[in-house]
Amino acid sequence: MRNLEHVKRFYFISFAFLLIVALLAPAAFAQDQAQPPLFRPDQLDRMVSRIALYPDPLLAQVLTAATFPDQIPDAARWADEHHYLTGNALANAINEDQLPWDPSVLALLPFPSVLDEMASDMNWTTDLGNAVLSQRPDVMDAVQRMRQKARDFGYLRSNGQIIVSGGPYIGIEPVDPAFVVVPTYDPLIVFASPRPGFFVGGAIGFGFGVRIGGFFRPWGWGATRIGWGEHAFFVNGRPWGRTWENRRVYVHPYAEARHYDHPVARVERHELIQRSAREREAPCAGRPHEEEHHHH
Q: Dihedral sign, CA of 54, 60, 62, 63?
């Protein structure tokens, strides 16, 4: 009888132990999953190389938007579908459609080519966002290292579109704060020593830019900069404080005032839609029509 009681006690203790392990295992797994990935400096250098030469205001918007990778593909599709809209009409379209994404993602809708770049390589975008959340100073240091290389090799310099500051940190600002250019370049070229006879002045292109007016201010434009010395992003004039730990609850304070629909802007949008439809249906119509250049 005593042996039977020992057996029962053994099985009871074993069952209790297994139950405790079963209950704790998901929590331990979740805690493990919650650990941020860590990237080496060389990995971060490669990660930021394709955007390191963006003007500071655009770079800040890209880095913060990358922390919402699940929203990027839908935003890229919306931007592509509305690439014919600009300025006031585009701002109205964003508000009319009541798009649900974070303001940092909305801020990139005037830049369909940038969103397309992010959406076309979601592994890169996700890694970039995770690095920003968990290693922001390291990410910013990597940008500075790449800018230093491009400047030392003679590729990065001030011109008619951008102003490159000297130091101790290399800043890149638009010559016209209301006109933001998107540079195009090959990272394999501009971050390496030029071949003999190579024309370094043509390695970075500035063929596409977006005029950013007050209608985009609700999403941080006009009051966004990078504080390189303090490793900080200032979005909408305030330090951006999203981190790996608070990523599920942090909400950055943006402008409360929304851009409401205005009759003139509504007519402008309608005319653009109608014109785009006419051009698709009859691109070779007898009468000449005004040619519009849209980049995406």
A: positive
